[in-house]
Automatic annotation (TrEMBL):
It is a multi-pass membrane protein. Pfam families: MscL. The keyword Transmembrane helix applies. Homopentamer. The chain crosses the membrane at residues 21-46, 66-90. This is Large-conductance mechanosensitive channel. InterPro entries: MS_channel, MSC/AndL, MscL_channel. It comes from Flavobacterium aureirubrum. Keywords: Cell membrane, Ion channel, Ion transport, Membrane, Transmembrane, Transmembrane helix, Transport. The lineage of its organism: Bacteria, Pseudomonadati, Bacteroidota, Flavobacteriia, Flavobacteriales.
Length: 126
């Protein structure tokens, strides 16, 4: 029974639950970003740009020796587009958050250490 109770404690702790929620939300966010890139940005922006450059299928570009540099270029472009989309989304989410109210002014500072020592010295003289 000791192992089962330890397992219950592990599962019920906030860390495991927070991790599970983070993974699930991360997967859902990844699906949103992938859909935005593949269904909106790629057809609207990248495909016309590739057609203008007379490159119909970037992934099929290769050298005479068979090195598929087109796949590498496609992966780099995909990474840059996804990174930019995530940047824009995070920036938008951060701008939607409430602006933090400025902290209340701190209480007026008391006398400095030098002033306290001077007061103590004067009291000792009396």
């Amino acid at each position: 029974m000791g192992m089962i109770s330890e397992f219950k404690d592990f599962i019920s702790k906030g860390n495991a639950m927070d991790l599970a929620v983070g993974v699930i939300i991360g997967a859902a966010f990844g699906a949103i970003v992938n859909s935005l890139v593949s269904d909106v940005i790629t057809p609207a922006l990248l495909n016309p740009a590739l057609k203008a450059a007379q490159v119909e299928n970037l992934a099929e570009l290769k050298t005479e020796g068979g090195i598929l540099y087109g796949k590498f270029l496609a992966a780099v472009i995909s990474f840059l587009v996804i990174a930019f989309v995530i940047f824009i989304m995070v920036k938008a989410i951060n701008s939607m958050k409430k602006k933090e109210e400025p902290a209340a002014p701190a209480a007026p500072a008391g006398p400095s250490q030098e002033e306290l020592l001077t007061q103590i010295r004067d009291l000792l003289k009396k």
